[in-house]
Automatic annotation (TrEMBL), chain A:
Stored InterPro entries: AAA+_ATPase (IPR003593), ABC_ATPase_HisP-typ (IPR030679), ABC_transporter-like_ATP-bd (IPR003439), ABC_transporter-like_CS (IPR017871), MetN_ABC_transporter-like (IPR050086), P-loop_NTPase (IPR027417)
SUPFAM superfamilies reported for this sequence: P-loop containing nucleoside triphosphate hydrolases (SSF52540)
Protein's name in the database: Polar amino acid transport system ATP-binding protein
Single GO molecular function: ATP binding
Bilayer topology annotation: Peripheral membrane protein
Family statement drawn from the similarity comment of this UniProt entry: Belongs to the ABC transporter superfamily.
Gene source species: Pseudarthrobacter enclensis
Keywords tagged on the record: Amino-acid transport, ATP-binding, Cell membrane, Membrane, Nucleotide-binding, Transport
The keyword Iron appears for this protein: no
Residue ranges occupied by any ABC transporter domain in the UniProt entry: 15-259
UniProtKB/TrEMBL annotation, chain B:
Membrane topology of this protein: Multi-pass membrane protein
Gene3D superfamilies for this protein: MetI-like
Residues passing through the membrane, by range: 46-66, 95-113, 120-145, 250-268, 274-299
Comp. bias regions, Low complexity: 9-25
InterPro entries: AA_ABC_transptr_permease_3TM, ArtM/GltK/GlnP/TcyL/YhdX-like, MetI-like, MetI-like_sf
Stretch list, region Disordered: 1-27
Compartments where located: Cell membrane
Domain of life where this protein originates: Bacteria
Main location: membrane
Family to which the UniProt record says this protein belongs: Belongs to the binding-protein-dependent transport system permease family.
Domain ABC transmembrane type-1: 89-296
Protein name, entry field: Polar amino acid transport system permease protein
Amino acid sequence: MTNTLTAPTAARGLVEITGVRKSFGATEVLKGVSLTVEPGGVAVIVGPSGSGKSTLLRTINHLEKVDGGHITIDGQLVGYEVRGDRLYELREKEILKQRTGIGMVFQNFNLFPHLTALENVAEAPVVAQGRSKEEARRRGLELLDRVGLKDRADAYPRQLSGGQQQRVAIARALALDPKILLFDEPTSALDPELVNEVLDVIRELATSGTTLVIVTHEMGFARDVADTVVFMDQGQIVEQGTPQQIFSNPQEPRTRSFFSKVLEPAFNI
Amino acid sequence: MSSAATKVAQSQQPQPAAAEAPPAKDAARVPKDYSSYRVVAAKHPWRWVGTAAVALGVLAVAGSLATNPRWEWGVVAQWFTAQSVVNGLVETLKLTAISGILGFVLGFILALMRLSASPLLVSVSWTFSWIFRSTPLLVQMLLWYNLGYLYEKISLGIPFTDVRFFEVQTTTLISQFAAAVLGLTLNQAAYSAEIIRGGILSVDQGQLEAAAALGIPAWRRSTRIVLPQAMRAILPTAFNEIIGLVKGTSIVYVLAYSELFYTVQVIYNRTQQVLPLLLVATLWYIVITSVLSVFQYYIERHYSRGAVRNLPLTPLQKARKFFATHAAVPNRRNL
């Protein structure tokens, strides 16, 4: 099942997370998390609500600033610059530039409601990468075609179904040609019958050589698409391994008790 | 509503016995074809009664306006387009436009200050709104006009040194017009800052996150992503404010500034035709407000792109549709 498609360009999209800590007020939501995702790899993070999965994902593109530890992408620090023995915080402009290499898909889509599907997709390449409007439009249509929505290019997000909106959001994230794509529970806000159209698009991306980091509650999909499954609980990575190892033969009692709650309905039919 | 509901309930009672019982099995198999039937529109008798009652009231009011000689419509007509009144009207429009635009620009800056991360900017913005919303506009006007009493000269230079680029007598700088614009603008800015801030806050946080994740720069994020969405919340209240400002300009009569209301006062003090002349001013204010309301409708419609599934029809489109459908009465079924 695992698509260990070693990307032709070697060091494209290597994510290394080392000892990352993060607190919101008095609650520590990440307690020293370390994780490596190989270029072109697909890491799926699972775990109970409030385990810090989404926060970890958001630290990768610096939407959340870490309190301790560090994250590198292809060896380059996220959000900081090394000069001598100091880490200098990057300015807004440089952080934005880093983010163009990292696409993100949100649980609630966060499409811009006053822009059409095509405008949503074509906005960032023009203002963040300085491409021409014409080029961004053409590429936008290509991407909408790829997610099966070319004919809805001029529709506003509210005129689309949830599944269609999320597919537009994926096209929007792809428009910047990111090395890494982050998915924050991409199907949690969807009606059950719309989940698969989104998962199919992500499945297709998993074979494309882009590094994917996915937070999801869809265990069947995780088993299907992941190289690495990461189980998180209470701000820590409890266990990680191939889907085979984690789903069929979990070592830790916490992992076992979590899967015994979530897997039963889906797998014991 | 209720009468229609009871009718339906009554008519349902006898039906099962009469119509449905005998052919129940056959009817279930072959769906009956209703395409040749005539559709009779539902009747709303009470709607007609209500319409008639309201029409009667409107007629009575209109009749009294037309027949009561004390309204002195002749005098109204005579002064409505008089040169002095039109001059006053132009002054009113000028004050509204200048203070409205400057007020909202300053209000936008104040709103951004209030939302910024700097505690100093936040408190300066807050204090500005606090002061200008706590003092009567009338008092502010008089203070600005009498600024010369507090500060004889106004100069521009480098603070805490003797360097002066220019210096001017306050009384020459603060004319009636300047005092009026200053007072109206600053007061308007204090209110519009809150309106704009409210609009910005109404935009979902996820929009900013998505824009940031896409690497869209901060200025572009505000102008392209947040403001267009905030406008939907800002516009109705903003037009309230501008319409308020149109009439609010009448307060500058305390500076003996000859805008519409002051001009009318001067005239009726001379001719003693108080009510007809107040009516002249009133009618002009109504005209301005009506024009603004039309603008408001179309601007709001523009910013509702994407917020509603289908844009509502404009009055013009509605009228066209009405005539298109009602002209073709024989083809009723095709509605």
